[in-house]
Amino acid sequence: MLWSWQSIRARRTVATGAVAALVCVVVSFMFLLFAGNKEADTSQNRVTDAWNRVVPLIRQGPLPPVLQKGEVEAIQVVDEHGRVVAATRNLAGKPPIATFRATRTQVSTARTLCPPIGLRGCMTVASYKVFQPQGPWLLYVSVPVVPWYGQITSLLLAAGVSVLVTTMMTAWTYRDLTKALGPVNAIRAELAEITVTDLVRRVPVPAKYEEIRYLAQTVNATLDRLDEAYTRQRRFTADASHDLRTPITAIRTQLEEALLHPHDTDWPRMAEAVLAGVDRLQRLVTDLLALAQLDARSSLHRDPTDLRRLVDTELERRTHRKRIVKEMPESVFVNCDRLRIARLLGNLLDNAERHAASQITVRVLGDRSTATLEVIDDGAGIAPEDRKVVFDRFTRLDAAYARDANGTGLGLAIAREIATAHGGSLTIEDSERGARFVLRLPAREPQVSV
Fold first, then answer.
1. Which helix (H) or strand (E) holds 357?
2. Mean pLDDT, the chain, as a whole number?
3. β-strands 66-67, 84-88 pairing
4. What value does the mean pLDDT take over residues 225-248?
5. Are 80 and 57 in contact (CB under 8 A)?
6. 124 strand-pairing partners
7. What tens digit of pLDDT does each residue of 371-397 get?
8. Contact 373, 342 (CB under 8 A)
């Protein structure tokens, strides 16, 4: 997990740095475009200033042979015959720097020459027509070519700011992630130390970072369920071991005593006693297997079933020691595993027969959403404080033990697990007399005849 979080942190830092770099590149590009346009405007203003300064000199005359350069690279004036009549000092005595001129419909034009005659490097040369009585003269003004990014200073500034912002964003993200992953490392360290014998420990829940706090709370909730399940499993194993050891010990004792006194042993009677112990072992193993399957959440074979018909069939199949009263006015349909619901009903009937005085009432009711099965006996009933306890595994109240010492104490626990697996519930509710077990299952529309 640590490697995973470190990998996430590294990837997050790299991703943030990449995003910051991309944003900086875009912003820097836009800044350089702005700077380049600004510098081009400045260069054009310099050319315009030179034009404003020289044109009046041409028209007023006489034109001095050497012109002041000002803020441009070079200025040159050519008369109507193509002779240079005035120029800046760097073009003195040199031929015209260009031969192009504006078209008839234009006064000015500009071109980039690499280089203009008499100059070095690429220059932007602007050509202006100056109308004279003898014919149009040409005014050439040369300025350095302005790159798209403007000056080198702008380029260095944009690059420096981009590197600085990217570095700051990456460092801030790394620091923030390192700080945020501190609680994650604490959770990891605590989980690494928790063992099956130390499930009471819990991971720390940070006060900040909502997502990590939810993670820690989820981990603690999972540990709570695991601790509860392990405690229940340990208790179940201890109880099962005790209940299995008791009949095995009794059978072993009977057999050893019989072997010590073979001639004084009533072998048929002893065989019946051993067989009774084996029967109890078989019932216990069968119940344990059923609980193991339910705990493993084994799949249910759900079929559309008429609950009234299923209950009626089970009642007809069984032999009853007490009088059975049926109250099943109409069919109620459910989706259920018929074998397991029959097992549930059998466990409820077995429990009712142990406690009923003379009569057991089986009732099937239903509405649009819920199917209800009730098993009611006319015995002493179950005290309200014991109504939840009786569903615990291996729980046997004194009255139950007195009536049947060979019971497993798992029948009602299995019944409730079956009800829960079907998305229903099994509870004990109030009745005028005796115990009233109520099973509720989700009902379905009677579309399929069963």
1. none
2. 81
3. parallel
4. 75
5. no
6. 112, 143
7. 999 999 998 888 888 888 888 877 766
8. no
- pLDDT at position 5 over 50: no
Residue 17 · residue 170 · CB < 8 Å: yes
Q: Which residues pair with 440 in a beta bridge?
A: 372, 425
Query: Distance between terminal CA atoms of the chain?
Result: 53
Say how far apart CA 132 and CA 427 lie, in whole Å: 116
Alpha carbon distance 179, 181 (integer Å) = 6
As given in the structure block, the two tokens for residue 297 are 């959440």
pTM: 0.51
394: left (phi over 0), alpha (psi -120 to 50) or beta: left
> Do 422 and 336 touch, CB atoms closer than 8 A?
yes
Q: Is the distance from CB of 252 to CB of 271 less than 8 angstroms?
A: no
CA angle 32, 36, 42 (to 5 degrees): 145
Say what the pLDDT of residue 329 is.
87
- Asked whether the beta carbons of 216 and 206 are under 8 A apart, the reply is yes
Query: Which helix (H) or strand (E) segment is 154 a member of?
Result: helix 152-193
Query: Are 112 and 142 a contacting pair, CB within 8 Å?
Result: no
**What number is the average pLDDT over the span 240-265?**
81
Structure tokens at 125: 């040369």
Torsional class of 93: left (φ above 0), alpha (ψ -120 to 50), beta (otherwise):
left
**Residue 66 in this model has a pLDDT that exceeds 60:** yes
Q: How far apart are CA 84 and CA 40, in angstroms?
A: 28
Instruction: Enter the tokens of residue 300.
Output: 């249910």
Compute the distance between CA of residue 28 and CA of residue 21 in angstroms, rounded to an integer: 10
Q: Is residue 3 very low, low, confident or very high in pLDDT (cuts 50, 70, 90)?
A: very low
Q: Whole-angstrom Cα distance, residue 124 to residue 144? A: 6
Q: What is the DSSP string of 289-331?
A: HHHHHHHTTPPP--EEEEHHHHHHHHHHHS--SSEEEEE--S-
